[in-house]
Structure formats: structure tokens, C-alpha cells
Amino acid sequence: MVESNPPLLNNYLQLSKKISAPDCEDEECKLVTRECQLPLIYLKALNSPDKSERQACSEAICKTSSEWGFFQLVDHGISTKLLRKMRREQVRLFETPFEKKATCGILNNSYRWGSPTATRLKQFSWSEAFHVPLDKVSEPACYEEFTSLREVMIEFSAEMSKLARLLAGVLAENLGSKIEEFDNICHESTCFLRLNHYPACPISPNISGFVPHTDSDFLTILYQDQVGGLQLMKDCNWVAVKPNQDALIVNIGDLFQAWSNDIYKSVEHRVVTNEKMERYSVAYFLCPSYDSLIGSSKEPSIYRNFTFGEYRKQVREDVNKTGHKVGLPRFRILTPENHSQELC
């Protein structure tokens, strides 16, 4: 079998040798997966001269954020031409030999692959990515010979930032907050783009492209290809998201769930591998500065106040110690009621 670029197979086999017994099949792996079409939002209505249309669009965004934590977005204002340029440049970047991606400092030395902290096979991700802070996107030195990628990244990140702040404003207003709060705390140094590549995985359908997780941000906007593989947890079942070439995918992150006091849902999701086809996606993450205080907009608060820096530190500690993220439960205020509450 020919090794992949990066050498994921070798990495996976080395991890297998370290494990004395195979992973037991988790209950979540036994759950039936069905394909679904995510709720569809036509964002153009948000700029309608008709007040009732604007209100209906805002209500739909907030409702799906509460019921699903995910939705599809069309008429979002980002041109198809720009999206296609981003995809072409992304494919060209990932076709670069592994040694160069891993050692030459492309995109601010942000290259990642596999799962260095994995201690079990179920924690292994069959993927590679570039994780780029927005304040580094325009730096020419980050791109080596990929000068055309720089131009596209600058334009793409600006459009995604504008869209993310628009959506955050709608969601914040529904909670009685103002978009200015996000403008004041969400900085380019902590917001970032993640360019993802999931190579074909011919050895096992049980290997994750990206392990189950929630996002440690306010919200995420995803531009994916048509291969499919994204799945989310809905009603205690894994649901496969049917790709829509005209839509971006938006999901709520942990910080908005805490801010909204669980009105909006940060939903667990994963990427499954494909035996024959590789998959590409680009995600934009709206994040605050590390010293920003995250507190509930409602009382009584379900979570204690915490800074984004404190949250990120706790996530890293949990991942390094256990191999997986714990997230918001670490910051939940325990009461007799929620202490006994059963989770999926």
C-alpha cells in the first residue's frame, strides 16, 4: 500500500503497536447514521426593505442555532468565483511534499497532521491542516512561493470575517446584546482560518477524518467540497450532512452556548473518512481575545465566568492528559438539578 502525504498510515500503525488491546466499540459508534439536509437560511432576506422579511430571517437563524446548532447559508454574499479560487489554491498547497509542509514554515509554521496526543485509535484523525491566525494572513513571508494563495487568503478572510460578525450580531441581538460587544473583543490575533485536507483512507471505515468535538469559539463558518463526510449529533444519533454546493455551513461554538446560557447549542460533530476520495474544507473561527470574559447573558447562569484564555488552557490540558476535549462541562455550575441531568 502506498503511503499517503502526510505519512498518516505509518503514524496510525505506530499508534496501533503501542496499544495492548483494541478499543472497545463505543456506544456512539453503534448509533445509526442517516443523511439529512440542514436547515437552509436565505441570508439575502436580512437586507430586505421589508421589515417582516428581515425579522423572519433573524428568527430563523436564532431558531436553528437553538434547535440544531448548525445551518446552511445561501445568498451569503461571498462570490462563487472567490470560493473556487480558494479551493484551487488550497489543493495546490496540500499537494506540496510532506517534508516541505512540515519544515519550511509555510503559513506561519501552522501545519498540523494526524493526532500527536492520541493514546487510543479512536482519538486518531486521518487529516492534515493549516491553522492560520487572521493577523498573519497578509504577511508575505508566510507564503514562500505561494504568492497567489496570499491574495486569495486576504480576500477570503475579509469576506468570512464580515459574514461572521453579521451573524454574530443577529444572534447577540436576540440575547439582548449588541454587535459592538463582538467588535470590541474579537481580534484578528485570535480569529483564524483552518485549511483542512482529508486524504482517502483505504484501511478502515472506522478511522475518523476528524474526531468528535465541539468548536471552542463563538461560531464557525465552513466552506466544504461535495465529497461529504461531515456528521453532527442530533437527538443522540449521528446525522450525515448532505453537501450543498451553493451553501456555506454555520455552527455555534462553545462560547456562544455559554454566553446564551444554553439557548444556542454547540453541537458535537465529526468528519468520517472516505475510502477512495479525498475531501477539502476551509473553516473560519470567530474568537475573542484571550483576556475577554465570557459570561452568561441570562440568569441564573449555568456556567461560571471565564476568560477565553482560561478556556483554551483547560482544553489543552484535557487533551494532553486524556486525549480528548472536555470543554464546557468543566465550567458548569453544579446544582442538584443539573448534576443529575443525563447527557447523550
From TrEMBL:
Task: Extract the InterPro entries matched here.
Answer: DIOX_N (IPR026992), IPNS-like_FE2OG_OXY (IPR044861), IPNS-like_sf (IPR027443), Iron_ascorbate_oxido_reductase (IPR050231), Oxoglu/Fe-dep_dioxygenase_dom (IPR005123)
List its EC numbers.
1.14.11.13
Signal peptide residues are none
- Single annotated GO MF: gibberellin 2-beta-dioxygenase activity
What are the entry keywords?
A: Dioxygenase, Iron, Metal-binding, Oxidoreductase
**Which catalysed reactions does the entry list for this protein?**
gibberellin A1 + 2-oxoglutarate + O2 = gibberellin A8 + succinate + CO2
Q: Give every Fe2OG dioxygenase domain span.
A: 187-288
Entry's Gene Ontology BP terms: gibberellin metabolic process
Answer whether the UniProt record assigns the keyword Oxidoreductase to this protein.
yes
UniProt family annotation:
Belongs to the iron/ascorbate-dependent oxidoreductase family. GA2OX subfamily.
Designated name of the protein: gibberellin 2beta-dioxygenase
Origin organism of this chain?
Answer: Tripterygium wilfordii (Thunder God vine)
